[in-house]
């Protein structure tokens, strides 16, 4: 069973040694061929959407299990491993780290043309790729900046996203997994898998079901309120931090605040209230554009050109404080590789998942054409 969530690891610096990368490519090729022959391409990329399985594969291929480099090097090794065999294997790996991630849409379209994929299906894949990156940068505001984006798809239209963000402040990286069977709604709990070493305080998670009302009102704000009214609300919220009883008359906005009976402390800790939205010309430009375009739902609002974290924060603030639609501030992480304990603190150890994963991996390793000594080394790394 795939658990939903996010993975966090220590941030790596430097490059993977050439000798190690070459070995990872060699073993990755063997593993991919065996798994795809046994279970098919759709199941292969579905498994990569499971952080526990992904982490285990990286360990088998000889990379540090708890390092951020596992994500970037493993996806790069798999991409290189299947080079020239994509059509035969039925899987296509696009994107990668840094500037390579920006080439993802072009790579998707190029492969689509080579396998005669219908244009509408190709466009859908590009859209899902772009939206997954937008969701993880704008709707989950956890302090991690996306720097790696890998998009895998099959001839049948199944797709998986493995992308990673970095937090340079605390020197950690966080990995986000998606799969097409789970991400039916791109803006409501679309992630697959979970593995986190640490939770982040005051994360704004607008993908949570708890945030449904906030998403709905945010969408309605640009549909019905109009740019001028919306900006007045934002100026009101970004400049007035005094107790409500001491506030000067501020019109309908203040009346709504009184009805909510909010205390002054809510203005102090709110993660976005100290931003002066009135001074951001770019934000005003984007808000004006979306108010003119009037996107019909929250997903189309997010997909609008220029809409990013700040626009989403601004709308979330108005929706919460003026309309009472509080979003989730709980980190969506639910599971830990490093800190899971038998007593369930802070997370339970899912022994059944781990045991099944190890058992499955061992079976695949035994079926590869690698020398006996290399098979034993791979199994040893996995069990350790």
Descriptive account of the structure:
By secondary structure, this protein is an alpha+beta fold. The chain has two domains: 245 residues, no CATH class; 113 residues, no CATH class. 50% of the residues lie in helices and 11% in strands. The protein contains 16 helices and seven strands. Strands 1-6-5-4-2 form a five-stranded antiparallel beta sheet, sandwiched between helices. Strands 3-7 form a two-stranded antiparallel ribbon. Helix 1 crosses helix 4, helix 3 packs across helix 16 and helix 8 crosses helix 14. The longest helix has 22 residues. The radius of gyration is 23 Å and the shape is elongated. The N terminus is likely disordered.
Average of pLDDT: 81
Query: How many individual domains?
Result: 2
Q: How do the helices and strands follow one another from N- to C-terminus? A: EHHHHHEHHEEEEEHHHHHHHHH
Main sheet, how many strands, which sense, barrel? 5 strands, antiparallel
Shape: elongated
Q: Helix share of residues?
A: 40-55%
Radius of gyration (CA) equals 23 Å
Cα(first) to Cα(last) distance is: 23 Å
| Proportion of residues in β-strands | 5-15%
**What class, by secondary structure content?**
alpha+beta
Number of strands: 7
- Order of strands side by side in the largest beta sheet? 1-6-5-4-2
Q: Uncertain segments of ≥5 residues (pLDDT<50)?
A: 1-7, 241-273, 336-349
What's the number of helices? 16
